Every structure is written in C-alpha cells, then in structure tokens.
C-alpha cells in the first residue's frame, strides 16, 4: 500500500504490541495433548467463534501475552465466509493432521481503524466479535489468507477485559519472538508502519516465525510459518511433537 508523504506527515505514531501467538490444531484434543507434551502445561478452555466455525483453548505465556490453540469446531456448520488464519487452506489442514502448527501472531493496538489506515499492507476488513465476557475488533482478510507468510500480524483492539489477564499462570513464558524473511527491509517497513515492538526481523529463507518459550520442562523453540512446526527443547538433540 502506497502512502503519500504529505499524508504520512499528518499521521499519528502507532504503537502495536504482541497480544498472542496462534497455533492451529486439527482438533482441540490434539492441541491440548501437544501443549502438555511439548510445553509441559495444560491450556485453559476458551470458547466458540460462531462467525468462523472455530473454537479454542488458551495458555498464558506472559503478563499480557497468551498462546491460542485453535481448531475447526466439528459441531458448527461451515461458515459462509473464509475462516481466519488460513484455516481453510488444504495444505495447512494436511499439516495439522500430524501435529499442531504455529501459523501467526496477533498484535494489540488501541485504535485498530487508525492502525489499518496507516498499514503498508492490506490487513483486511475489521470485524467486531465477542465471546463470553470478551469483546474485540480484529482485522481479517476476506479470503482468510495471511499476509507475508503470516509474518505481519493480525491487528486486534480489545474493549475492556483481555484474555491474558484472566488466565492462570502456566509456568510458560515467551522469551523471544522473531521473524525470518528473505526481504527483511521490506518486512521491517511493514512492522514499523504499525509501530510494532518486541519482534525482531532477520534475513533468511524460507520465511519463518520463531518463538522461544521457557517452560517447566526447559526452553522450547517453535518454528512456524511456511514450514511444518518444529518444537525443540534446548537440552534435546531431536525435535518433539505430540502425535496427530
């Protein structure tokens, strides 16, 4: 998206920060088992997303950050629109049959409309959603696909309560989040337009999202994006994942 320099000069600086990581699972039972075996933690039940035909469970991984494990809800009818986070993609569905997959991250902002206007990519339409006590606005492309291999965050603006504050301590902490991309300068520009902090951009290929988590069982490095998830403990020489 091109921004006229004269218009850019009048824009207010944005300030987006990591809200949560998104791990797609084939089923919630599979995702919960993966969390117990790989992260040594038990996620908290979440709820249903009626517009998207999905449901989730959550794991607190910081004072204001959580990990969302999300799956297609077999008890709901297929939605009229594309599901978020690329969940209708046949390739992703094939991958998560074997193991959950780290696909994306979501960034919190206090003014999603302004952030979307200043973005240098198309974040999609802004939807207003709710679940239980939570209300939020979120950017979702009409086709459900993720921009820049999932390395540019979905935007979210919470109204009132946020999930992380209501979740129990899990013993898991997000230590580091970075993205790898063959065109790092371009990706940095996309992040900077959102005022995104807390995410480092590195040069490399293929594009990847890398999260380092400190867990009760040791440090775990999750690698997602366009490659199958890898869950590697710092004291192990082989990758570990739950069975599909």
Task: Describe what this molecule looks like in 3D.
This protein has six helices and 14 strands. Helix content is 18%, strand content 37%. Residues 1-10, 226-232 and 234-244 have low confidence and may be disordered. By secondary structure, the chain is α/β, with parallel strands linked by helices.
Write the layout of secondary structure elements.
Blueprint: H1 5-8, E1 16-24, H2 28-38, E2 44-49, E3 54-60, E4 66-72, H3 90-96, E5 101-108, H4 112-118, E6 125-131, E7 134-140, E8 154-158, H5 163-166, E9 173-181, H6 184-193, E10 196-197, E11 200-203, E12 208-215, E13 218-225, E14 230-233
Parallel strand pairs: 1-4, 1-10, 5-8, 9-11
Antiparallel strand pairs: 1-5, 2-3, 3-4, 6-7, 7-8, 9-12, 12-13, 13-14
Measured as a percent range, the helix fraction is 10-25%
Largest sheet: 9 strands, mixed
CATH topology: 2,3-Dihydroxybiphenyl 1,2-Dioxygenase, domain 1
Q: N- to C-terminal separation?
A: 39 Å
Radius of gyration over alpha carbons? Answer: 17 Å
CATH superfamily: 2,3-Dihydroxybiphenyl 1,2-Dioxygenase, domain 1
Whole-number average pLDDT?
88
Total number of domains: 1
User: Strand fraction band?
Assistant: 35-45%
Uncertain runs are 1-10, 226-232, 234-244
CATH class: Alpha Beta
Per CATH, which architecture? Roll
Shape: globular
User: How many helical elements?
Assistant: 6
Q: What is the β-strand count?
A: 14
């Amino acid at each position: 998206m091109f921004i006229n320099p004269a218009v850019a000069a009048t824009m207010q600086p944005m300030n987006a920060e990591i809200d949560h990581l998104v791990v797609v699972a084939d089923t919630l039972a599979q995702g919960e088992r993966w969390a117990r075996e790989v992260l040594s933690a038990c996620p908290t039940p979440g709820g249903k997303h009626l517009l998207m035909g999905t449901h989730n469970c959550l794991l607190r991984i910081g004072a204001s950050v959580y990990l969302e494990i999300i799956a297609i809800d077999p008890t709901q009818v297929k939605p009229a629109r594309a599901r978020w986070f690329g969940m209708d993609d046949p390739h992703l569905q094939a991958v998560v049959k074997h193991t959950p997959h780290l696909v994306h991250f979501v960034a919190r902002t206090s003014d999603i409309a302004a952030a979307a206007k200043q973005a240098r990519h198309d974040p999609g339409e802004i939807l207003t959603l709710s679940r239980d006590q939570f209300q939020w606005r979120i950017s979702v492309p009409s086709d459900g696909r993720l921009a820049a291999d999932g390395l540019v965050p979905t935007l979210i603006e919470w109204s009132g309560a946020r999930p992380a504050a209501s979740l129990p301590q899990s013993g898991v902490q997000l230590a580091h989040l970075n993205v790898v991309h063959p065109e790092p300068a371009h990706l940095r520009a996309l992040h900077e337009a959102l005022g995104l902090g807390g995410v480092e951009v590195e040069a490399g290929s293929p594009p990847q999202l890398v999260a380092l988590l400190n867990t009760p069982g040791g440090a775990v490095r999750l690698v997602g994006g366009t490659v199958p998830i890898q869950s590697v403990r710092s004291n192990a020489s082989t990758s570990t994942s739950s069975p599909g």
